[in-house]
Amino acid sequence: MTHDNAVTAYFDGLCPICVHEMAHYAQAAPALIQLHDCNGEIPDDIDRDSALASLHVRLPDGAIVDGWLAFIAIWERMPGRHWRWLAALTRPAPIRIPLNRIYLWLAPYRPRRNCRDGVCATDRR
Fold it and tell me: What GO molecular-function term can you cite, just one (predicted)?
């Protein structure tokens, strides 16, 4: 059962860190946070390369946000005050913009599984 305030997170399902983090969010708020691996079929309005480069989230109104704003959209829906505080504290532009730049700078260095003939290994992009 989904909620009117639910979001869909488009993430890299070949990144073990991304999978672990997104699973945590979805498990904590299953009616509010839906997951979609960008390595499979994706909606036409989502650019695969962009979605694999940084987290993208579809908001309840259909708008797409990415990068740090995508994390904020998820954190606002998580149970527990500390998540909403984190979202509120990092939303102002003087904080959010530098954090987004750091996130986009680090994201290409995340580990990523490469599968060939059913054998998977973890490599850097």
Answer: protein-disulfide reductase activity
Structure pTM? 0.88
How many Cα atoms are found within 13 Å in the side-chain-facing hemisphere of 103? 19
Query: Running DSSP on this structure, what letter comes out for residue 70?
Result: H
- Is residue 104 within 8 Å of residue 70, measured between CB atoms? no
Where are the chain's structural domains?
A: 7-124
Three-state SS for 55?
A: coil
Q: Using an 8 Å Cβ cutoff, are 34 and 26 in contact?
A: yes
Give the DSSP H or E segment for 82. helix 81-90
Indicate the pairing of strand 119-124 with strand 64-66.
Answer: unpaired
